[in-house]
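Pilot study result, target chain (539 residues):
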Amino acid sequence: MKLIEYEKINSKGYLIAAAFIVALGIGIQFKYMNEFPAFIHAWAQDDRYALAVGFVDNGFDLFHPETNIYNKQFPGWWAEAYDTTITAVDFPIHEYIVALLMKLFGTTSPWVFRIWTMICSLIGMFFLYKSSFVITEDCQKSLLVTAIAMTAPVYAYYFNGFLPGIPAFAIGVIGLWSYLKYYKEGKKKFFHLAIALMTLSALIRTTFVIELIAILGFELLRIFRKESTFGDKLPSVILSFALIFAYMMWNSHLRGENGSLFLNELSSAKSIDEALECINDAKYNWEYQYFQKFHYRIFEVLAGLSVIAGIVRLVMKLKNKDGKSKKKQLTIWLIPIIYLFGCILFSIAMIMQLPNHDYYFIDTFFMPILMLFALMLGTLPKIKGYVAGGICLVALAVICFFMISTVTETQVSRRWSEDGAYKCYLNFVDSDKFLDSLDIPRDAKILSMYAYPQNGSFLQMKRKGYTVMWHMESVVQSALTWDFDYIVIEDRMYCENYEEHKDVLSRFSKVAGNGRISVCTLSDSVVCTSTEDFLNSSR
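Predicted structure:
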């Protein structure tokens, strides 16, 4: 039976899958839907949140994205201030759409961003189910692949978050589904759609160019085998790389003119020992965040069953061989293999970042591993009959129960009350209203001292300025020369850093405080000789 006919017969399976995905997504994420970005990787999430708010503030100028920071991380490592808050960044269409929604709803609250990302995630998971169905032609197997993806701790954490890797992954999955449809049915429109979607995914998050290259590499092999043609695909491919190259050039221009808050350079190890140390650190930090322990056990069992099924199939093929050989399509197992090879090369180039960035896994290895999982399930016998189907459905329900329980626990464990970013968030709650009460205008430039992460405090103050997130002497000394109107510092950070940076902090003349943050100006001489003196002072 052709796949297209099988899909029509099993269209009810899509409705079940959609209901399952929506229920699971909302069930896991509901309590976090208006949570300000704090905890793990608040830095990256705050920067993305700031981009969306920046589009609201700059009149929706897509090609001049900006945050709240005048001094950029690159190339001067925070020590160089620019005249604007514009920054180079991967194509920010995701944040731009969020900004439009913020304008529509009349608020820049976190729930707007989270709802959009969650919608992207839900759509991506539905097409992961559809992609798995193209491979397995089985509803329950496809649901298992989807359930594993949605309960992977790292994916669940960012499922409704602020990082562009989530919508890029969703678009990439739809692109994969489009290509698999083309592979199965031969309709050229699906190939062009796949390339268009993968190009957009790569523009949003550069690492997804690995998927594009993997698919094009696989298709090139098919052309060599005369399973496919060349000329009719060339225009789409040329346009794809032209768009990627054009935005790279524009981004380079923005970086040269305005600097960037976002990493755009390789971060490879200097030695094999350093690389191995990074791998061990990443394994220690994230092994059971990439997937659950239970997931790994499922993978191991499935790999064993898949090997056995492959051996049995090979034996039967040799036994029934009649001397005639029919040329078969190039196996799609090569797609995740090529994809994984590209991910390994990327990991080597960026290995110094892996111990501290769990979300790189979503950008790279997550999709090909899920595809391999679907392919292994596809080697197993199809589930036929009501009895077998009922047994498998019960087994799937039990498996999902354990996976959901675990990911619910990791969602909590990732939100640590002593987290520095969370403490900073709490201290800056309603800081915009506090500054308004002091008649500090919204266009005043603020020097935010020691607030982590850098854009978070400005988002809450609803103002722009300069950040001194790091305590490096070169950054601090540069910051004191910039054209700021006021200094804002958390009281706890003033007390914790006073002895080490007494030469600077003793010159902070306090204007006002609310018990959590203090607004100051910079004096030419010492005005506070102790932390008690500072906390009790006010002009």
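One observation from the pilot: The two ends are 82 Å apart (CA to CA). A full batch analysis is planned for the follow-on phase.
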